[in-house]
Amino acid sequence: MSDAMQARTAERVRHFVDAGYPDAEPVEAAVEGAVYRLGDGTVAKVWEHRQAAELRRMQGFYADAAGHLPFASPQILAVQDIAGVPMTLEQELTGEPLAGKVSTEGPELLPEAVDCLVAVLDALAAVHDVDDMKQLHVLDEDRPLWEGHATFASALADLLDRRVARCGDPLTADITDFEGKHARLTEKLRSLPEAPQTLVHGDLFPETIWVDDDLRPCALVDYGFLSTAGDPRFDAAVSAAIFTTGTEHAPEITRQLTTRFADEFGYHVDDLLLYRAAYAMATSDAFAPGGGDEHFAWCTSVLNDPAVADALDR
Q1: How many whole angstroms separate alpha carbon 264 and alpha carbon 257?
Q2: Cα(169)–Cα(185) distance, integer angstroms
Q3: Sign of CA dihedral 270, 273, 255, 306
């Protein structure tokens, strides 16, 4: 942690102490901000890249999700301000991240971990009361993903067009036949038949799934990156690919999970590859404008994957 970040963290802890939380302490820092445990069963999340209006939309989204899922979701108790930066007060959730329970040293995941992921995907796909969720923005967009669209896939295609128009140059340089892949991908998305509209988390991996000692899901956290109403195949496609990103056996585990999800839920593998490519194209610059970070490298590897190219050509 840099000196500036340490100073900012210490300043915020003092703020919480002065506000009546003497046991306040930092928990973690993530892409979108930092989390502080306040010691009374609540946590404070300080958001570096969100506006208060967005967080109030998230407050409603969390309330909707909590009423439909068999495990806990974050609950925003209040949206406040700390030194000009939006902050949410939330209930502290129980459980531990699945990441601490999953070994990535071999080419196969613990069966209980895979069953846990399947259970989470199944629960999300069972939530159909999602009209209000269509008002959510995704990534750093200035409009709801669904604005002007009747289907998730067509909304996603327009999102790709906007992102590529704004920051597509690094992708053009790093991806074979990028312009052709972009054109074929958006064409295929726009031609997909209308799918069930369910709750999409958008960022399922072992850090966002919290479990009990028996690896049963007890909480799902960190909505907001790509959370919306949408096609349940999107979460299946993305989670299979990011579950063990960066590990030696990630490609083999991705293949295994993709096959399992296709068999479990009756999804076509080509549709999963299509949504995976869309995720990679949409989020390539999400953490480093202009690319160049590990996530950008992962996104380019997805878009250069021969299996993805074959799916786009069929």
Answers
A1: 10
A2: 17
A3: positive
Classify strands 217-220 and 209-211 as parallel, antiparallel or unpaired: antiparallel
Query: Among positive and negative, which fits the CA dihedral 18, 19, 25, 26?
Result: negative
Pairwise CA distance, residues 254 & 238, whole Å: 10
| pLDDT of 2 | 73
SS (H, E, C) 126-162: CCCCCHHHHHCECCCCCCECCCCCCCHHHHHHHHHHH
Do the beta carbons of residue 36 and residue 46 sit within 8 Å?
A: yes
pLDDT digits (tens, 9 = 90+) for 134-169: 999 999 898 999 999 999 999 999 999 999 998 778
The residue ranges of DSSP E strands in the chain, in sequence order, are 25-30, 33-37, 42-47, 76-82, 85-91, 96-97, 198-200, 209-211, 217-220, 228-230
Instruction: Say whether 268 sits in a helix, a strand or coil.
Output: coil
Query: How many CB atoms are located within 10 Å of the residue 94 CB?
Result: 10
Task: Go through the chain and tell me how many residues it has.
Answer: 314
